[in-house]
């Protein structure tokens, strides 16, 4: 199993943060998005928030490739619709590459 962690910021607006959390509750999430994540090979995913910073943990098989998931997402109109909706709430980290949302974090410690 491979575990990857990502970071992203939300716009620092309490109303937008509340709306973002609304869309991520199980009863409000889009089933097509959940299905696309599972179909891409993700075995578990969690998102945590502190202030306006998000932290995502993604567990996948060892042979999982982020570029392949990105290509699948790009070709999926429903995922693109979701991403457009989410971009209303999100802002890239200052060091993110152009067009990059979630930034892969570097592990610096493991017990």
From TrEMBL:
Record InterPro entries: Carb_Metab_Mutarotase, Dimeric_a/b-barrel, Rham/fucose_mutarotase
One function term, GO molecular function aspect: racemase and epimerase activity, acting on carbohydrates and derivatives
Protein name per the record: L-fucose mutarotase
Organism, as annotated: Pararcticibacter amylolyticus
UniProt lineage: Bacteria, Pseudomonadati, Bacteroidota, Sphingobacteriia, Sphingobacteriales
């Amino acid at each position: 199993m491979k575990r990857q962690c990502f970071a992203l910021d939300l716009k620092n607006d309490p109303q937008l943060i509340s709306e973002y959390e609304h869309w991520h509750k199980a009863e409000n999430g889009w089933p097509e998005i959940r299905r696309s994540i599972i179909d891409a090979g993700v075995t578990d995913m969690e998102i945590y928030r502190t202030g306006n910073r998000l932290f995502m943990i993604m567990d996948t098989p060892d042979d999982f490739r982020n570029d392949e998931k990105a290509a699948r997402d790009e070709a999926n109109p429903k995922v693109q619709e979701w991403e457009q909706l989410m971009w209303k709430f999100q802002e890239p980290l200052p060091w993110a590459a152009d067009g990059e949302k979630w930034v892969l974090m570097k592990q610096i410690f493991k017990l």
